[in-house]
Specification:
heterodimer, A: about 80 residues, mainly alpha, about 80% helix, about 0% strand, flat, B: about 90 residues, Helix Hairpins, 3 helices, about 90% helix
Chain lengths: ~80, ~90
């Protein structure tokens, strides 16, 4: 189970690096943090999983989406 | 294999299939809905294991993930709404 979750994390991280759109990369980062929280939960560390869930799913996505919005979708403006 | 194991495996398989949609999804909306479905399945597994092992601390992980996952999804949908309004 641990190896399966780590392998899935590697696949999701590589897919996150290949994304063209910034918002898709943010969503894949959320999937990465979900797998990380599940891994910590499986390793009997519920407090670490709690922090990973709060930071990875909520604060990181919120700040990154806000930043993409402030920079107009990461597109170049003439 | 008990009934509990079958239910947990069902939810995990559901999450895995949704995760493929997150990875290969053509548009951003597909990835967003796929992540929502994946989160729902994983949350069900977390609650089932917490109830099975009789550890109430494990339930807090599912609760916090649900709340903050909703906030993150709300930020993404608000971004789409603002972009549609300005375009």
């Amino acid at each position: 189970m641990t190896e399966l979750l780590l392998g899935l994390q590697v696949i999701v991280a590589i897919a996150c690096l290949w994304m063209k759109k910034p918002l898709a990369a943010v969503i894949l980062l959320g999937a990465f943090s979900l797998l990380g929280a599940l891994l910590f939960y499986h390793l009997d560390a519920p407090d670490v999983a709690l922090t990973e869930a709060a930071v990875g799913a909520g604060v990181t996505a919120l700040i990154f989406v806000w930043f993409i919005h402030r920079t107009r979708g990461g597109e170049h403006q003439e | 294999m008990s009934f509990f194991d079958i239910v947990v495996l069902f939810f995990l398989a559901n999450s895995a299939v949704s995760l493929t949609r997150v990875i290969i999804g053509p548009s951003v909306v597909d990835r967003m809905i796929g992540l929502n479905m994946t989160t729902a399945g994983v949350l069900a597994v977390l609650v089932l294991i917490a109830v099975k092992q009789q550890v109430p601390v494990y339930l807090d992980v599912a609760l916090v993930y649900d709340i903050f996952g909703f906030i993150g999804l709300l930020a993404i949908t608000k971004y789409f709404s603002d972009r549609e309004k300005s375009a």
